[in-house]
C-alpha cells in the first residue's frame, strides 16, 4: 500500500522516499552538493597560523583593524649615513677642506668669461694670469 505525502503518525518506512514528498521547515532543509562543498571549504573553527587557515585571534583582529588602508611599517629615516649613498662620475662627496681650497682658488672677481668662437689672434691676445680663471665658450 502506498503511503500518502505525509503519513499520519509518522512511523518507519522501508525503501526510499521521494524528496518531493518531504515537507521542509526552518530547521529541516535540503542543501545542494555545491552548498555542502562551499561550506566544507571554509576555514576551520580554530585560530589561523602562518601555515594553516583558520579563524583570527582577537589580538590579531585588533591589530589588523588598527592598520590604515595602504599603510606599511616602513619609516623613512631623517638622515642617511654617507656609506649608503652610491657615488658616480657626476655625484661625488667632497670634504670641507676641498671646498675651502676651491673657494680660495677662484673668486668672482678673478673669473673672466670669453664667448667664442675666437680667432688665433684673439686667443693669443689673452694675457694669462695665475690669479684669473678664463672660461672660453663657443
SSE diagram, text form:
Elements: H1 33-40, H2 58-65, H3 96-105, E1 111-115, H4 120-124, E2 133-137
Parallel strand pairs: 1-2
What's the overall geometry? rod-shaped
Low-confidence stretches: none
User: In sequence order, what are the helices and strands, one letter per element?
Assistant: HHHEHE
Sheet with the most strands: spatial strand order:
1-2
User: What Rg do the Cα atoms give?
Assistant: 44 Å
Number of DSSP-assigned strands = 2
Count of discrete alpha- or pi-helical segments spanning 4 or more residues? 4
Strand content: 5-15%
Distance between the termini: 117 Å
Structure report:
With 138 residues, the protein is an alpha+beta fold. The longest helix has 10 residues, at 96-105. It contains four helices and two strands, in the order αααβαβ. The relative contact order is 0.06. β1 (111-115), α4 and β2 form a beta-alpha-beta unit. The chain is 22% helix and 7% strand. It has a two-stranded parallel sheet with strand order 1-2. The chain has helices spanning 33-40, 58-65, 96-105, 120-124, and strands at residues 111-115, 133-137. The chain starts with 32 loop residues before the first helix and ends with a strand.
Quick structural summary:
22% of the residues lie in helices and 7% in strands. The chain is an alpha+beta fold and 138 residues long.
Features:
alpha+beta; 2 strands; 138 residues; 7% strand
